[in-house]
TrEMBL record:
Family matches, as Pfam families: LMF1, LMF1_C
InterPro entries: LMF, LMF1/2_C, LMF1/2_N
Keywords: Endoplasmic reticulum, Membrane, Transmembrane, Transmembrane helix
Cellular localization per UniProt: Endoplasmic reticulum membrane
GO terms under biological process: protein maturation
Membrane topology: Multi-pass membrane protein
GO cellular component term, pick one: endoplasmic reticulum membrane
Record-given protein name: Lipase maturation factor
Organism whose genome encodes this protein: Myodes glareolus (Bank vole)
Domain Lipase maturation factor 1/2 C-terminal: residue ranges: 153-296
PANTHER family: LIPASE MATURATION FACTOR, LIPASE MATURATION FACTOR 1
Amino acid sequence: MAYYLHRSPWWFHHFETLSNHFLELLVPFFLFLGRRMCVLHGVLQILFQVILIISGNLSFLNWLTIVPSLACFDDAALGFLFPSGPRGLKNQVLKMQKEDTQGVQSKPRYGCMVRQVVNFSLGILVAWLSVPVVINLLSSRQVMNTSFNPLRIVNTYGAFGSITKERTEVILQGTASPNASAPDAVWEDYEFKCKPGDLWRRPCLISPYHYRLDWLMWFAAFQTYEQNEWIIHLAGKLLAGDAEALSLLALNPFEGRAPPRWIRGEHYRYRFSLPSGLHAAQGKWWIRKRIGPYFPPLHLEDLKEYFRTREWPLPKPHPDTS
């Protein structure tokens, strides 16, 4: 669905933005406006998260957000899901509730008053502690994933501090050529389980599952390999034909033969093809343009010192590695 939503007309994107602001800034206050508005809040929030699930791959984040919204629905709202016959679960619950409420009116309301005072006091405390959070929210130098007091009752958290407008990807390539600089060297792409790579592969839906390596590769494309040294560690394991590392990938182009002599990282800019365009007619979901090298061609022998200085275990060469 992300492909088609991305290529929607401009007015639909404006509607999406307006709806997003309405659902995230105004709808939460429905919780304080009575039972019906509270139920409406739950319906709108769950619908919003479902739309995010089918249009993106944010793993389990949206599913976790649905959980607190379930508390918006009381027994009356969910009663239609259960049979109402004489022996049905709904009828049994109603009998239990009647038995529990007998004689309640004669009991003092002291406990109810105490609960109201505690709730009001907690509300005041959270509001007071939230002052620096709100100031941070309105600041041009907003910080993410930070707690503002030792109790960690209030904080700023989120998966993303900012959103990019372009999709860049690191594509790992290997070659069996003895000379990585040779013009006739054939470079073959490694494919990951879900992140963009093969132009003809349809975008996948993995939510609520989480492919950690694909996720890290996405963030590595925002920076350099010096800031993400783990990607060199991965390259070394692929050069050695490490079975555990290869199990994290969808396609090993060297399966059934010796591992590559060289591996390099290429930096590409990806975008969706136009539904009625030439690339889409060829079956391509993606169009990509090379930005430049991400890291230069690496040989397993050349990485030994790099691994030692970082106290990484040296990958054991595959028996077919020459």
